[in-house]
Fold this sequence. Notes:
Blueprint: H1 2-19, H2 21-26, E1 30-35, H3 37-40, H4 47-50, H5 52-60, E2 63-66, H6 74-80, H7 84-92, E3 95-99, H8 102-106, H9 110-120, H10 124-147, E4 152-156, H11 164-187, E5 193-195, H12 217-233, H13 255-281
Amino acid sequence: xxxxxxxxxxxxxxxxxxxxxxxxxxxxxxxxxxxxxxxxxxxxxxxxxxxxxxxxxxxxxxxxxxxxxxxxxxxxxxxxxxxxxxxxxxxxxxxxxxxxxxxxxxxxxxxxxxxxxxxxxxxxxxxxxxxxxxxxxxxxxxxxxxxxxxxxxxxxxxxxxxxxxxxxxxxxxxxxxxxxxxxxxxxxxxxxxxxxxxxxxxxxxxxxxxxxxxxxxxxxxxxxxxxxxxxxxxxxxxxxxxxxxxxxxxxxxxxxxxxxxxxxxxxxxxxxxxxxxxxxxx
Length: 282
């Protein structure tokens, strides 16, 4: 796969020198982004122009395709991959970059998980969701390989955008997803490449939009740097300094969500204190 992309880049450079820009465009490696709202760029008001995937493509001269959908879980992604347009994109792709897994915890489970994690300190449900993630990941990778045996698969780790009581619960979920990603990588050598974006987004005031979930413009630039470094380390690209063709603009208007989540965390913490008090009395 690496030799294939490097050959394409070399041929493209030669063609560019001899025939001009149109020849270079015809030979560009295809970079496909799949997954959730992070990959879509939901923290930006101009995601099409400034999401990290676009920055990566602009930096390395890739042809850029993005079929990410906000709110998608691994199950949603599997169904998304049945779409003929997405199938065609997978067949065409040289590099497939996937952000997925966070919504497996967030959607439909958050009340129960916060109660389990904050009040009861019981993480059995977290473990079950992580096991389901792993099973879906196996199917996702296998399905991609049926369509495209050669594309490089870049899987991103899950970051933690929250602090306080909620942050502790988020970290439990993120740790489990990231552990499963690495376990899959060890069990299937050379099948995927893990891009560890989790350690890059650590400044809650700068890296995240007002909703404290999605990367801001600055956060997207940090994500791009991690992906670019990962690509270069694996012989899939050359650039490491992001090329910003269009500056990102942070999305506004979702600050209430942060207040709501923090209140939720405080409320469940209070429940845990009351519960422990009664347990101690009884």
